[in-house]
Records
---
Amino acid sequence: MSANDYDHHSPHSLNLFCASTPMWVLEKLLGLRQPIGAPAHRGVAVENGVMHGLMKLDAPVSECVKVAMVAYDTLMALSPDTRREKYRDTIEEMVRLALDELRRYGVPSRTQGLVQWQPKGLRLPIIGYFDFEWAQHGVIIDLKTTEKMPSQIKFSHARQASFYAASDNMAARLTYVTPKKCETYELENICEHREALRQIAVRIENLLALSDDPEFFKSITAPDLESFYWGGPARQLAYEHWHI
């Protein structure tokens, strides 16, 4: 695999570049994607259950929970993550809380909507998918599952949501749901956050212009083994590829 195989940006890859450039090199340039664990699979499952309940407002919560559980069990079928049951046990309440929060908006006009943006100066487009749009309210909402409720929108989520909203001049909101509560935050300064996302893309493209050899990018980065990004199997990959 070469750097030339990196053919588009996404909000996730741009945020990963900021959070851990070596992990970005490992996944995006070396093609060594890390296993998806129970927390991420729970997030997808809860989203599936909530989407079912929003598209069918009269569907009982139990039906929506069943959709989420089936999705989770399917995704986790071959996962070695030992936290399987711990996260499964929180799905029912998270679906209920999120539906209580979001059903007041009515049926979404779109779900999993594609957004593509290639501003002047970028060689590659930025491509992503938002969770829910209510055109009738002028609102796009991204649903985030988490263990602890943040007191404000996280920077990475702000950049992501701004990308989805600014293209259609929509308001952007983040709905965070934990096993115990659900809160929705309005995103302010959308254009500024979107410009930050563009700036990250510019830096990635400046870096990629230096070489098309992934070995070069390993030679100028070093993973932080104390970061959660490098726990579990990833730590062995750090030893193998960076020799540290």
---
Amino acid sequence: MYNPFSKSDKNEYNELVAKAVSGDAHSLEKLIRLHQAWIYNIALRMVFHPHDAQDITQEILIKIITKLSTYDSKKASFRTWLYHIVANHILDMKKQKYERVATSFEDYYNYAQFPDENPETYPGHEMLIEESKISCYVGSLLCFDRRQRLVFILGAIFNIDDALGGEIIGISKSNFRQILSRSRKKLYNFVSQNCGLLDDKNPCHCSTKLLGHIKAGWLKPNKIRFCRAETQTVSDVIDIDDFRDSSYGKYIQIFRGHPFYKDNDFTAWVRQTIENEEFKKIFHLN
């Protein structure tokens, strides 16, 4: 899986961008294929809901396509330019449905509490427990404000360094490090005291809360959002360092053990979009 944030990435996009701008539809599609999954995975963790993440990804791709002719390799690398557009869109977009639900980690935890029950008689309970585990962790990110959330996703989950992360968001390296450090600590303080995945002695266990989550409508057995049969996890596609050995390592590894979603292919949509007469004018397509 291609990783645009890899430290070994040489950002050799200039020729591809030039061909796309000059009207080469195949080059434009290749650019989309290289980055679509990463944009979607960032968006999904920002807004929680797959459908909303798909819409946001399409909106971002429209911006990238329409602004592609303005890219100047002398001012920034292409990946910085592209993901700066991603970051600006995500930080400035209207508030999404689930962003209105979580206001603090304390409220999030209290909101999710139900009496303990035994879920083993429920059909497909093992997969639903995994769904509950992933959705709970992804949902906890909504307790951050947007900039903290984006920094955490880029820096903690996808392991982007402070230099690139700062460039993408438009802040200094030191500011990126400070936000990342505070967000890691804030979330760790919450999960380390409550989450049974980190310590069996903690009060909250997804398996015992499963039936309550289903009754409340938070989990829908016929509508699985996160526990999908992906072939790769986040850990499989990012550059790994020794962060797993730090004090935050265990719960960061939980995030990195989540699926990296690749089932959304936007190239067909791109083909339809560039057939639009307005796009033909922009890119001089034949």
